[in-house]
Target: Ras-related protein Rab-24
Amino acid sequence: PLLSLRLQTIGAAFVAKVMTVGDQTVTLGIWDTAGSERYEAMSRIYYRGARAAVVCYDLTDGGSFQRAKFWVNELQNCEEGCRIYLCGTKSDLLEEDRRKRGVDFHDVQDYADEIKADLFETSSKTGQSVDELFQKVAEDYVNFSAFQVMTEDKGVNLSQRNSPYFYSCCHH
Ligand SMILES: Nc1nc2c(ncn2[C@@H]2O[C@H](COP(=O)(O)OP(=O)(O)OP(=O)(O)O)[C@@H](O)[C@H]2O)c(=O)[nH]1
Model:
């Protein structure tokens, strides 16, 4: 094309997605934060208190996987109650040509095991595995919250500002 326009995320975009898990309805509040390091401080504001983070990298770009590790470290250091999902994007390009894979699948799988993250390979173009990813996020949220309620003595004190429930982006 003569003119190629690519909109970069500045700050964050928000969408609410209503999901069904068994007989429960869960509304995921999803913030799409800027991947660029330039907006690093701003992204931090949006994921504070998040219960789940989908860390994306481009399956055709090894460097993007290294940058994804930076965000995983950030989350591990700052967000104890946040489950991490690794998401390799643009899987449609690999369907076209396997040689385009820039990150070895087994290396990512090993890393995912190490950080106890689930791993998905998705395509925004074809929609491949996108629904599965968000369904897993919702299911884990429901199951993990149920487990947490069972193991907590007397519920949750919402007046505690550092309570993960206070900032939770997901709610029933
Ligand atoms: N083939 C293919 N191209 C994609 C896919 N997802 C994104 N792209 C392309 O990759 C480029 C970057 O996509 P974005 O969605 O803007 O990437 P981003 O990581 O959100 O970037 P920031 O907004 O800067 O954080 C665009 O040219 C998209 O068209 C995909 O699933 N398949």
Summary: Residues 130-151 form the longest helix (22 residues). The chain has six helices and six strands.
